[in-house]
Every structure is written in C-alpha cells, then in structure tokens.
From TrEMBL:
This is CZB domain-containing protein. Residues 15-83 form the Chemoreceptor zinc-binding domain. It comes from Alteraurantiacibacter palmitatis.
C-alpha cells in the first residue's frame, strides 16, 4: 500500500506521459488507443486508486480530493475527445483539441495534484 503522496507523485508522472502518447497518436494516426477506455477516469492506475478502498471517507469528503477527482474526470474526457478525433481520421481537429482543451486541463490537474501533495506531505 502506497501513501497518498506516493500515489500523487505517480499520477503526476503517468498523466504527464499522456501528452506524449496523444501527440504520437496524432502524428502517426495510430489507432492503438480506444477513446471509450481513455475517457474513463477509473481505468488508469490513479483512477483505480482514487475510487478504490484505500481512501477513507474523510479524505473523500475533503476539498482537495473533490477538486482532483473532478479535474481527473475532465482530463480523461478531454483525452478521450482527442483520441476520438484521431480514430475518425481528423488529425487537425485532434491537434486543436490537444492545444485548446487537453493541455490546459492537464496543467490544471497537475497543479491540483501538486497542491494536494503539499497538503498531505
């Protein structure tokens, strides 16, 4: 079992990699990502932890948890939209979604994660 700070560190790294994965998918037109799966915020390791039994009710009720949970949902929804555009062969639209929607949401999520980590450390 990992501490909350360790889980948050892992999430920051893993979610940072999504930018590279999405850019690669757009550039190559690769269809190895599934938009339905990517859109699910409970499918990644952090999401499984976030919704899993390791987090107590007090933490779930806290503002940092609620903010991160919402931003994590938005992050995955946005990533799913980028992948969906790639799946449809709309790489230019995917690039636009990446810059106008995904990148700002990703940055906001990372800031929230860092703030939460600072509060639990």
């Amino acid at each position: 079992m990992s501490s909350t700070a360790e889980q948050i560190n892992a999430a920051i790294g893993a979610h940072g990699m999504w930018k590279l994965r999405l850019k690669t998918a757009i550039t190559s037109g690769a269809k190895d990502l599934d938009s339905r799966t990517v859109s699910q915020d409970c499918e990644c390791a952090f999401g499984k932890w976030l919704y899993g039994p390791e987090i107590d009710a007090r933490t779930r009720a806290s503002m940092p948890y609620q903010v991160v949970k919402r931003l994590h949902q938005e992050f995955h929804h946005s990533a799913g939209r980028v992948v969906q555009a790639v799946e449809c062969g709309q790489n230019q639209a995917a690039k636009q979604l990446m810059e106008s929607d995904f990148v700002p949401r990703s940055e906001k999520l990372v800031r929230a994660l860092m703030k939460w980590k600072g509060e639990v450390a």
